[in-house]
Description:
Layout: H1 3-15, E1 23-25, E2 28-34, H2 40-55, E3 62-68, E4 75-80, H3 88-101, E5 106-110, H4 118-121, E6 131-132, E7 135-136, E8 139-141, E9 144-148, H5 149-152, H6 163-174, E10 183-187, H7 194-203, E11 207-212, H8 216-231, E12 236-247, E13 254-255, H9 262-269, E14 274-280, H10 282-289, H11 303-320
Parallel strand pairs: 2-3, 4-10, 4-11, 5-9, 5-10, 11-12, 12-14
Antiparallel strand pairs: 1-2, 6-7, 8-9, 12-13
The structure holds adenosine-5'-triphosphate and magnesium ion.
Family: Belongs to the Mrp/NBP35 ATP-binding proteins family.
Function: Binds and transfers iron-sulfur (Fe-S) clusters to target apoproteins. Can hydrolyze ATP.
Binding site for ATP: 82-89
Amino acid sequence: MTDLSALSQRLASLTGNRTxxxxxxxxxxxxxxxxxxxxRDARVxxxxxxxxxxxxxxGVEDVRIAxxxxxxDRAIVAVASGKGGVGKSTVSANLAIALAKLGxxxxxxxxxxxxxxxxxxxxxxxxxxQAEEKQLIPxxxxxxxxxxxxxxxxxxxxxxxxxxxxxNALGQMIDARWDDAEVLIVDMPPGTGDVxxxxxxxxxxxxVVIVSTPQDLALIDATRAVNLFEQAHVPxxxxxxxxxxxxxxxxxxxxxxxxxxxxESAAGVMGMAFLARIPLSIAIRTASDAGTPxxxxxxxxxxxFMALAGRVKEWLDRRQA
Length: 321
Ligand SMILES: Nc1ncnc2c1ncn2[C@@H]1O[C@H](COP(=O)(O)OP(=O)(O)OP(=O)(O)O)[C@@H](O)[C@H]1O
Ligand SMILES: [Mg+2]
């Protein structure tokens, strides 16, 4: 292997395939470094590391690095429901963690202006995101970069905001410094209000995941949320049935107080993919309340969320292709 091709391989692994093939002419080595999505510090550090490597190659007297940055096409995945309390926040948090486990660079936005729950779910209550050049810098919760309205207001402070303020806060979180995140999971407030409209009109989600419980009423509400996004031509990723059947804390057996299969057939009628069935489980609730989402663990409660993340990743990969 020549010194140059060895360098090329080293740089590829050092930067995560962000460098072009290096060229050497009259002692001057040139290459292109793609710094898309990197924060300034990371950009500088990466360019320095590349230069150091390049200078160590025999025959290299000077190094010229051309940095390019594209605005990344960051896919927004909204997690929505027609009705409150069906588990959007639980599903969003665990979906984000499970996608990260599958190697997707993911960020989480809690757009529930009126009842933010991600700081508790991801054990980041009381943290304050910093801003740099007027851009918010996400914090980390359970290993995932995240921003929540709950971080931007005092705990317990009543948020009696008007629509435009809520929409503005949403915009600041979406446009935060997500660095190289490919996907933003957005935990939506329930229903079809100002935040939903702003999301649809301004931020153009790549797709939406609808969460519903098995009861008929919740499914009717789910239809309402589906209609809102469909009218706006936001692609449907599919339906998640949450609190589907009760997982016995003693033996793990699943019983179905509300009957089973309702959400799956409703998804079929609405022409939507059925993504996952997540049981009603005391362990899921206690883990969530404790700020240790089940998807972060390896127990049986992680499985339905991993399955969900797999389906969502497939959908995103297909969209990319
Ligand atoms: N599969 C589940 N098993 C047990 N408890 C669950 C499950 N999913 C959600 N919960 C619990 O149900 C409650 C509501 O869930 P969550 O906050 O995720 O719903 P939501 O749709 O985001 O609600 P809101 O509309 O108020 O934002 C929480 O206490 C949560 O821990
Ligand atoms: Mg919620």
